[in-house]
Amino acid sequence: MTNKKIVITGGPSTGKTTIIKHLESIGEKCLHEISRQVTLEAQEQGVEQLFLEDPTLFSKKLLEGRVQQFIEAQELISSRIFLDRGIPDVLAYMNYANEINPPSFVEACKKHKYDTIFLLPPWEDIHETDNERYESFDQALQIHHHLYETYTSFGYDCIEVPFGKVDDRSNFIIENVL
To answer: CA–CA separation, 144 vs 89, rounded Å?
Structure first.
């Protein structure tokens, strides 16, 4: 079955996970963000912030996980699947960290194409940091710029999701799935 793979992306503290959880609660098929899992696994091995200590290794682990999610999405029986971030996010964060994008990362983005990209803008009112989310609001703005640039460089038209209540934002996404 061919299904639509819809990415919900944005910098830290933009409401992605909240929207994904809401979409899932109303019966949509969703695949969750994996970066916290990668971070927690590294912390269990004594590496406090893998992205800061070894951005390339962190990105490699994310890329592998996101490619696996893409494959999983293809196999799900549903007309559409919502994903909390996509493969190009890996390149956007590497660009943010001034790291070189390995050719295999670029090829993964070209090979695994999504149908629709929703980009959540930085939202200062809900921005917060924690043990896995350490970026300031200014850094979140920079990450947003890199996400937009990266997705558009692969030919995607990013649909910006307006601020608002989670059900309003979720309804906007559902109404604008292409």
So the answer is: 10
